[in-house]
Specification:
- There is one protein chain.
- This protein is an alpha/beta fold.
- It folds into 2 domains: 428 residues, ANL, N-terminal domain (Rossmann fold), CATH 3.40.50; 100 residues, 2-Layer Sandwich (GMP Synthetase, Chain A, domain 3).
- Helices cover 30% and strands 23% of the residues.
- It binds ligand 6R9.
- The site of ligand 6R9 has 22 residues, from α10, β14, β21 and β22.
Length: 566
């Protein structure tokens, strides 16, 4: 197999028109993601290629070719149009990771609707806030989740249809309709709605640190970025079997759990199941997964389970590994290289960017602990937090900023123009994170803006502290936050969960403190370690330090709707 091209080769003369050409898109022409990911692939002669191999925790399996994707997404698009859903209206997908979710995504887009994917684990209140804000017209769901919709139904006068994909013989209530995808009359030909580059496609709700969640509005042109970043960063090749762990309620599960692989005509496997190391390794082994896109939260859990369990499985199919969502600790990179024979490659991006923007491309040397470099076509820098001028000095941390204008950048927050405008300063888009850049152009993540700790006027990022903690053999996960201090304003406090076989004790605290003292500056040293059973996380697996910090400061914690509560 030939080596992937180098970063320099890919960057030279880069233009997003490379993706336009490969996708056969002429500026000004209609462009529809649903069509791109199904009909177009069939036209390329791949109609009978496996597109989705789905499995759930009970061992049920289903398989769909690209032609199935085409016909079944037609069928859903036709059904929604017949119901009277019009282009531009929001259709919420509120399902577990069942095939209807993935194919429904393409179907809504094909009829010109705007997909609003939400985690099926959301309770009725989290659901209500988002359906009300988006003025959603229809929701597609399952029997097991419909009670949550019924509970809030009367307060959502504009929600015209509740569509059940597995109603069977169950009695339906007012405005509920049954749509069993497998039994519906298959629609061979559907006139795909001629959306154009700027037509809205996906409305992703992202949790703000405080206040209400924001609806990030994507457009159909985003596929240009998602196609090319999936191909180059995830190193997708025609024979790959690709596995993305993310739920489509999170942007990773749509940009790279649907659009990226399928616009590339790649076979993907979906496992509708929670985390379980044994089951995950079995899944990789059984399906001969070659490319795996995961997240630090899952990787830390795998590390906690140890290497012995890895050795019991044949994971030799794995060729390329990538990670997103949180900083990827150097320890995790080194560990993955050791146990899988290839390191997890970090990828940094956001709901708002729509695609990977800073990353370790396959051909680049990986520096463990660094996120890598700006993707070709993305201009990224770090800005001084007061002047918003580029820091232009290696090793000095600043605000991560991107030059606006890449194809998959969101076009706004739904009903929140002021919130969107506030993300731009001095001609840059601000990510809300801090990093420094080294002499080779590699970005080193420091922390989210609001998580940075100000101790005696010095800023300390939680990432370096947590990475040092993770190097101790007893530590499974940690979160470093500020706690109030009369002298230094803030000092560092670390919350730590332990690996199996270790119990909290004063001695262990001392041992961990001694271990990290060698790695951290005195300012970054935690004043206190608190052992906890688990850390607060979002549904996408991010540690929410804000909750821990607010408790230390006795402040209200703000919006908790995306926090895992089970
Ligand atoms: C795709 C996604 C975005 C925020 C982002 C940052 C954090 C994501 C990261 C990372 C360090 C990485 N983040 N990837 N931090 N290294 N490789 O996660 O989108 O849910 O909107 O979150 O996640 O703080 O600003 P989203």
């Amino acid at each position: 197999m030939s080596d992937p091209p180098s970063y320099e080769e890919l960057s030279a003369n880069f233009s997003w028109s490379i993706a336009e050409q490969e996708l056969g898109h002429q500026p000004g022409d209609p462009i529809n993601i649903g069509w791109m990911c199904s009909d177009r692939i069939c036209r390329m002669g791949l109609a009978n290629k496996l597109a989705l191999h789905w499995e759930d925790y009970q061992g049920n399996e289903k398989q769909f070719t690209f032609d199935d994707l085409r016909v079944l997404s037609n069928t859903i698009a036709h059904f929604l149009s017949e119901l009277g859903i019009r282009p531009g209206e929001r259709v919420c997908l509120f399902m577990d990771r069942v095939p209807e979710l993935y194919i429904g995504f393409l179907g809504v887009l094909k009829m010109g609707g705007v997909v609003q994917p939400l985690f099926s684990a959301f309770g009725d209140e989290s659901l209500f806030v988002r359906l009300q804000d988006a003025n959603t017209s229809a929701i597609v769901t399952q029997k097991k989740h419909v009670h949550k919709v019924r509970k809030i139904r009367e307060h959502l006068p504009n929600l015209r249809y509740i569509i059940l994909v597995d109603a069977g013989e169950s009695p339906l209530q007012q405005s509920e309709v049954s749509f069993p995808m497998d039994q519906a009359r298959r629609i061979e030909d559907f006139a795909v709605y001629p959306t154009t580059a700027e037509s809205p496609s996906v409305l992703h709700y992202t949790s703000g640190t405080t206040g209400q969640p924001k609806g990030a509005q994507h457009v159909h042109y985003s596929v240009i970025s998602q196609y090319l970043t999936a191909k180059w960063v995830l190193d997708l090749r025609p024979d790959d079997v690709y596995w993305c762990n993310a739920d489509p309620g999170w942007v990773t599960g749509t940009s790279y759990g649907i659009i990226g692989p399928w616009s590339n005509g790649i076979t993907q496997v979906v496992f509708d199941s929670g985390f379980n190391a044994e089951r995950w390794y079995e899944f990789i082994e059984k399906h001969r997964v070659t490319v795996w896109y995961s997240a630090p939260t899952a990787i830390r859990l795998l590390m906690k389970e140890g290497t012995e369990i890895v050795q019991r499985h044949d994971l030799s199919s794995l060729r390329h590994l990538a990670s997103v969502g949180e900083p990827l600790n150097a320890e995790a990179v080194v560990w993955s290289q050791k146990v899988f024979g290839t390191p997890f490659h970090d990828t940094f991006w956001q709901t708002e960017t729509g695609c990977i923007v800073i990353t370790n491309l396959p051909g680049m040397p990986v520096k463990p602990g660094s996120m890598g470099k700006a993707f070709p076509g993305i201009t990224a820098t770090v800005l001084h937090p007061k002047t918003y001028e580029a820091v232009n000095q290696t090793g000095i941390a600043g605000l991560i900023a991107l030059r606006p204008g890449w194809p998959s950048q969101i076009r706004g927050y739904w009903n929140n123009e002021a919130g969107f405008k506030a993300k731009f300063k001095n001609g840059w888009y601000l990510c809300g994170d801090r990093a420094s850049i080294d002499a080779d152009g590699y970005f080193w993540f420091m922390g989210r803006d609001d998580d940075v700790i100000n101790t005696g006027g010095h800023l300390v990022g939680p990432f370096e502290i947590e990475s040092a903690l993770l190097e101790h053999h007893a530590v499974a996960e940690s979160a470093a936050v500020a706690k109030p201090d009369p002298v230094n304003m803030e000092v560092v406090k670390a919350f730590v969960t332990l690996k199996r076989g270790y119990d909290p004790s004063g001695d262990l605290e001392l041992e961990i403190m001694n271990h990290i003292r060698k790695r951290l500056s005195p300012l970054a040293m935690p004043q206190e370690i608190e052992f906890v059973d688990c850390l607060p996380k979002t549904r996408s697996g991010k540690i929410v330090r804000r909750i821990l910090r607010c408790k230390e400061f006795h402040e209200p914690v703000g919006d908790l709707s995306t926090i895992m509560d089970d």
